[in-house]
């Protein structure tokens, strides 16, 4: 009997179950819920943020607070919504008091992100904020230099660095820059090889 290959949704659901019971770092001790990600398993665009905050920890949904509302607004401005894309985070659990993710936590969580990229197989990966940019563009000179720019990595995918929506909410100058950089997304998609 021939086995039907699993769909991307089934594969992501399986991964989500592993994440739900993960104890690979100490953040499992303080989390309420894991926040694996949300969106279209067949998305062409994957957004990767930093880590869940208090609201995300309560709900299990990424970007559901003020930064998420701003992200939704920017998605709408390019005629997309969060059902068209996939939204994940560098860490799947909230760091206490929203402190910065630690190197060891990022390392412990990294394989989940790699697996999400493998399953979804997006064409464009949008890195939101410093931690996300450091994951994939470690030698780029940092987000203030790299924001709005793309890099094609050996996996053939295009990585775009953007400021984090939460940082932009706290700094009016960054807000304008982020909104302008965001408007490049449709151009990047249009310029991608069509057979891909
Ligand atoms: N900030 C993030 O980086 N991720 C979230 O899910 C929420 C806020």
Task: Describe the overall structure.
A hairpin with a 5-residue loop joins strand 5 (150-152) and strand 6. The chain has nine helices and six strands, in the order αββααβαβααββααα. The mean pLDDT is 96. Helix 1 (8-20) packs antiparallel against helix 4. It is α/β, with parallel strands linked by helices and 196 residues long. Strands 1-3-2-4-6-5 form a six-stranded mixed sheet, with helices on both faces. It is 42% helix and 12% strand. It has helices at residues 8-20, 54-59, 66-77, 103-120, 130-136, 143-146, 165-170, 172-182, 185-190; strands at 38-39, 45-49, 86-89, 124-128, 150-152, 158-162. 38% of the residues are buried. The structure holds uracil. Uracil binds at residues 49-53, 56, 62-63, 67, 89, 166.
Strand and helix layout:
Blueprint: H1 8-20, E1 38-39, E2 45-49, H2 54-59, H3 66-77, E3 86-89, H4 103-120, E4 124-128, H5 130-136, H6 143-146, E5 150-152, E6 158-162, H7 165-170, H8 172-182, H9 185-190
The structure holds uracil (URA).
Uracil is lined by residues 49-53, 56, 62-63, 67, 89, 166.
Give me the count of strands: 6
Q: How many H/I helical runs? A: 9
Low-confidence stretches: none
Sheet with the most strands: spatial strand order: 1-3-2-4-6-5
Question: What labels would you give this structure?
Answer:
alpha/beta, six-stranded mixed beta sheet, 6 strands, globular
